[in-house]
Amino acid sequence: MPKPAIIDCDPGTDDAIALWLALASPELDVRLVTVAGGNVGLERTLANARAVVGLAGRPVPVVGGSAGALMAPFRAETAVHGEDGIGGVALPEGPPAAPGLAADAIRDLLRAAAPDSVTVIGLGPATNLALAFATEPALAGRVAEIVLMTGAWTEGNITPAAEFNAWNDPEALALLFRLGRPLAMATLDLTAQAFVTPELVAALAARPGGRCWRAALSILRALPPSKRFGMRGFPLHDPCAVAWAIAPGLFGTRAVGCEVDCTSGPSRGRTVIDRWGRLGRPANATLLETLDAPAFFDLLAERIGSLG
After folding, report:
1. Distance of CA 251 to CAs 233, 243, 289, Å?
2. Catalytic residues
3. Which residues pair with 293 in a beta bridge?
4. Rounded to whole angstroms, how far apart are CA atoms 2 and 64?
5. What is the 3-state secondary structure (H, E, C) of 166-218?
6. Which long-range CB contacts under 8 A does 133-137 form with residues at least 24 apart?
7. Which residues partner with 143 through β-bridges?
8. Pairwise CA distance, residues 71 & 68, whole Å
9. How far apart are CA 228 and CA 106, in angstroms?
């Protein structure tokens, strides 16, 4: 049976591709898409999420949420995603946003769900999810697994210490680790293995597909190469989290302990990941360590190519 799923996101170029992957995959029954600011401001991320879901032709409600973090404003990343959040790629206007607020919609869906049944996929700052669970923590019992694109066990990409999503709202992220539910992390170290080069984009462009696949290819062409990788290409972050939810056999994993640095210093947002059990504390996360990249990109092309 497909897994009931909530996707919380901040589209964002890679969020758009991740959403199409989720909506095209029979393993998931995506029942709600919630949106925060993050990669760009909430006005744009919400419009982008609506457009992505609309282009896929799926009747999934899209609900707006937090425009800022629990403790501070979000910092956008327009140098990567462009001022519009999707690299200047034009998408048709999507259906209107569903009424209400993201945290309320998350709680409503979970209240109606069976215990241990809902997969929660977080692709942006964790603010909407934290607000939902902080105000009704018993609803964590309805969650089968939380899957997050967040963190790093080595260096960050927004500061030397921190990954972008974790840095934008570390207090919210820390709350999710304290829920006591199964939680999987696709970190920067994992997503670096989903590495996109011009040669790969050219090969993917030879694969068949409809309007969503053509839009995904346009986004991949629009993304700038990463200085962290010598300008050779860029990592494709958010689809890795969705891939774990639909094809876990693509990954090698390790049970780890993780703590989030919520201080105000230069390490703010760092995910301290104890890969070798040096602290002697119980594991609270599944770390996605390795990825079968060729199979991952085959999955991406096959699934998104199947959309309209």
Report:
1. 22, 9, 7
2. 237
3. none
4. 25
5. HHHCHHHHHHHHCCCCCEEEECHHHHCCCEECHHHHHHHHCCCCCHHHHHHHH
6. 133/175, 133/176, 133/179, 134/175, 135/103, 135/107, 136/107, 137/179
7. 118
8. 8
9. 36
| pLDDT tens column, 102-142 | 999 999 999 999 999 999 999 999 999 999 999 999 999 99
Taking only the tens place, the pLDDT of each residue in 27-48 is: 999 999 999 999 999 999 999 9
In this structure, which amino acid lies at residue 289? E
pLDDT of 14 higher than 90: yes
Cβ neighbours of 96 (radius 10 Å): 9
8 A C-beta contact, residue 11 and residue 3: no
Of 3.30.420.250, 3.40.50.10280, 3.90.245.10, 3.40.50.1110, the CATH number of 3-305 is 3.90.245.10
What is the 8-class DSSP label of residue 96?
Answer: P
